[in-house]
């Protein structure tokens, strides 16, 4: 399938610091891609370059075969950005209608507001909306131009559980209509739940790109939880252990590529092991193993 | 080379002017609801009533002094709009992220600037019309031709002063825009003779006046209703021919537009690392 957007060797430097370092990314129709990474990984900077808000220091960005700053490209993109609210004095309905005037093909205002569950707040002023309602309005504005490419920056932040579920359902519906969706999220469960493909950024570099199963399989870690009279540093020194932390009940929580070897070593050394569980890793485990950082 | 998706069926891109009108309507509505815009528009009228409408006296040829003061306070209102309705408001919209959202939309950015200028046109027209009506109420009527000439000069002022507002919007931190706006507006209006004729200003202040674009634009406004002699009686200091005033205003407007463009680019390319 021909891609919607292609980022080729894209880099962005700020005063000697490299925020994004030679990232390649392809977005295809009908695909939901989750962009993961710790704070400062370069996600938002990458978004800015994809949307034409910032020029790359190196590499190229092409959206529908055009630069992202081209008006025709922007007419087919929708962006849900953080901290972008409309004029406080306008109502929800007026803000949507204003945005409709900016695009060549638009979705009806009623349909948009129903999609984001704001149809009961059409007359409410933007300045009086709650954080979650502003988030939903931001999504409605992103969908106004019937975009073929949708870019969502932490779309479920500030949403409650029901709102989050509604939004994820809406995202799946859009992907089923052959739209391409790129979403940045700190919520790994959400990424695992909705994304067809996951891209992991760390210190500006792309360190993983594939389905959840591919990434977890490539990292090859498993999660071992146990109780033992041993210092965490000793466990961390074992070859294969990628991270050591504690569970809420006080057990060690380890990600390791060699659980059998670890257990053999502990038993051989005479350590008593209790409350042992060994499970396959999930995306969160793989993320921690790849980045060495807990997801925010 | 990877080919991109074929373009969607060609839907006609809306004309940027449509977007500019939409921006104007939204700003007008939002501004009035917020109240601050009403204050901006009515303040020049209130000031005229308090300090201008009841001033007696006539200039040579029978032109009432109050008529010239009506022009002064109208000019005050136009500069007020350029600094606050254009500049400070745009700075706040920059801070709220609204301009960022508009940049990723299909709207060309000139539509936003155009919408702001339309807002300036509308507000300045309301100020002029309001002051003209108030002047007539106190027996200071102006011929329609003079008022129309003045209106053209006022619209010219809106166009030329808007770049100063945009420069303010893009060079000043959004949180400081209101304070900076006041620091710019009040001395500018005072030194240009919009609160008291230039001839009545302290000498050091009056010495600065010829260097200000607002003074030269004010000269054009006063000249719309007064002869050169009447303007001189009022205390207007003109370089001579009105085209000199026009040239100076345009030169300043061009400089402000360059500054605004540089500020816009600086904001766009701001070296700010975002996660």
TrEMBL record, chain B:
Pfam families: ABC2_membrane. It is found in: Membrane. It is a multi-pass membrane protein. The chain crosses the membrane at residues 36-59, 65-89, 110-130, 150-172, 184-207, 246-264. Its main location: membrane. GO terms for cellular component: membrane. It comes from the Bacteria. Residues 22-203 form the ABC-2 type transporter transmembrane domain. GO terms for molecular function: ABC-type transporter activity. Keywords: Membrane, Transmembrane, Transmembrane helix. This is ABC transporter permease.
């Amino acid at each position: 399938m021909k891609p919607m957007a292609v980022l080729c060797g894209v880099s962005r430097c700020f005063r000697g610091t490299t925020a994004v370092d030679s990232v390649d990314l392809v977005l295809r129709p009908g695909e939901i891609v989750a962009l993961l990474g710790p704070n400062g990984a370069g996600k938002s900077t990458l978004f800015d370059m994809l949307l034409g808000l910032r020029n790359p220091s190196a590499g190229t960005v092409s959206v529908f075969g055009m630069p992202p700053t081209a008006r025709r490209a922007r007419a087919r993109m929708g962006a849900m950005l953080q901290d972008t609210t409309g004029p406080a004095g306008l109502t929800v309905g007026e803000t949507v209608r204003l945005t409709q005037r900016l695009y060549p093909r638009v979705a009806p205002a009623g349909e948009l507001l129903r999609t984001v569950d704001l149809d009961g707040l059409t007359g409410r002023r933007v300045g009086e909306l709650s954080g979650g309602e502003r988030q939903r309005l931001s999504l409605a504005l992103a969908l106004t131009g019937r975009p073929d490419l949708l870019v969502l920056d932490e779309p479920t932040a500030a949403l409650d559980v029901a709102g989050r579920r509604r939004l994820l359902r809406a995202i799946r519906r859009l992907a089923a209509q052959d739209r391409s969706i790129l979403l940045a999220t700190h919520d790994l469960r959400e990424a695992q739940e909705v994304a067809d493909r996951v891209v992991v950024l760390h210190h500006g570099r792309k360190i993983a790109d594939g389905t959840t199963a591919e990434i977890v399989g490539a990292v090859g870690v498993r999660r071992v939880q146990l109780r033992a009279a041993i210092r965490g540093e000793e466990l961390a020194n074992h070859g294969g252990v990628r991270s050591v932390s504690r569970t809420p009940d006080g057990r060690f929580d380890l990600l390791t590529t060699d659980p059998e070897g670890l257990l053999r070593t502990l038993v051989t050394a005479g350590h008593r092991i209790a409350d042992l569980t060994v499970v396959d890793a999930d995306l969160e485990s793989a993320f921690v193993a790849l980045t060495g950082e807990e997801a925010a | 080379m990877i080919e991109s998706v074929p373009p969607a069926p060609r839907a006609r891109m809306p004309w940027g002017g449509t977007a500019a009108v939409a921006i104007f309507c939204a700003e007008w509505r939002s501004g009035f609801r917020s109240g601050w815009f009403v204050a901006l528009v009515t303040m020049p009228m209130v000031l005229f009533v308090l300090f201008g409408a009841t001033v007696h006296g006539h200039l040579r040829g029978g032109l009432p002094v109050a008529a010239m003061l009506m022009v002064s306070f109208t000019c005050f209102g136009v500069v007020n709009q350029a600094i606050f309705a254009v500049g400070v408001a745009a700075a706040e919209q920059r801070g709220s992220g609204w301009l960022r959202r508009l940049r990723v939309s299909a709207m060309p950015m000139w539509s936003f600037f155009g919408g702001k200028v339309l807002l300036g046109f509308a507000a300045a027209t309301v100020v002029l019309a309001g002051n003209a009506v108030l002047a007539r109420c106190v027996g200071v009527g102006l011929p329609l031709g003079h008022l129309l000439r003045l209106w053209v000069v006022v619209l010219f002022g809106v166009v030329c002063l808007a770049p100063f507002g945009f420069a303010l919007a893009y060079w000043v931190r959004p949180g400081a825009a209101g304070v900076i706006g006041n620091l710019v507006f009040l001395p500018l209006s005072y030194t240009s003779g919009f609160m008291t004729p230039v001839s009545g200003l302290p000498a050091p202040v009056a010495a600065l006046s010829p260097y200000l674009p607002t003074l030269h634009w004010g000269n054009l406004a006063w000249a719309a209703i007064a002869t050169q002699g009447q303007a001189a009686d009022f205390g207007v200091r003109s370089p001579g021919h009105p085209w000199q005033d026009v040239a100076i205003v345009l030169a300043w407007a061009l400089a402000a537009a360059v500054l605004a463009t540089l500020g816009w680019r600086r904001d766009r390319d701001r070296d700010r690392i975002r996660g």
